[in-house]
Amino acid sequence: MILDVLLIGTQIGLLYAPLALGIYLAINVLSLPDLTLEGSFGIGGAAAASSLIMGFDPLSSLAIGMCAGGIAGLITALLHVVLQMNVLLAGILMTTAAWSVSIAVMGTGNVSLVRFETLFTWVENGGLGNQLATILVAGAVTLVLALFLIWLLHTGYGLATRATGLNIQTARGMGIRTEKHQIFGLMMANALAAASGALVAQSQGFMDVSIQGGVIVVGLAALTIGTSMIRSDKVAVGIAAVVVGVVIYRCIVALSLRLGVPPNSVRLITAMLVFAFIAARIHAKGSFGQAGFESWRSRRRKHLQFLENDRVSSLL
Predict the structure, then answer these.
(1) Contact 26, 32 (CB under 8 A)
(2) pLDDT tens readout for residues 107-138
(3) How far apart are CA 74 and CA 195, in angstroms?
(4) Which residues are bridge partners to 112 per DSSP?
(5) What is the pTM of this model?
């Protein structure tokens, strides 16, 4: 059973790994909590499915889906940078609109891709089973995107983007055009999320607009689990941790279902996992640290500093 759970977790987890990479780029690198990623996931799947139906090959359909997600990220970025709209509100609006956009792109709420070749059927035609084919294809796409992201964030442009997310005031003082980097970063993050949507649509053999509902929680769980288990300031290690995190998360979900947990409780399990890993990451070190009044004061100061910094600008 353990091997079966690991295979299922890896199979499904790698399909959602690009989404987790997009969340890593938006939140960890840019420090922008962009909820558009959920909508871009659906738009990417819709664009990829429509492209296949129109006669495009599966690889081109994946690229088209990523471009569609990038456009959604561009709109959110322009709302944030140009119209000075809070990024949370801009993301909520775009995710709401993405549902209708996905239906408009497909012409309906659900389309079948059974009669069309996909990246996965290409590999299956070589004699491999569906599970192994999914692992190989999703793993290859994830590897390419992860290596590209690692390379990009180590270039001069990527270093400026990382500086923008780390301390925007200092970055501006260094002459970095932070708005440009925020726009580009959100486009990239949403393109990655759209890649996951395109992979899921091709893997399951149909595209339904409902697949985007709550999907961002999967990426957040992967980010939380991965960065809690593997802590490092290095970009390559952080990206690897996110991929490991999404596989671990899907393994836990698969194991829960095997143990008889109702499918309707999966989101509750996800929330509890995120709570547990965040609590362990924040409080574990302090629990085993030096006891005493000074230790308590130090933790209290950090707590108050967090409460002071945990603010967002006015939504309107």
Answers:
(1) yes
(2) 988 999 988 999 999 888 887 888 999 999 99
(3) 16
(4) 206
(5) 0.89
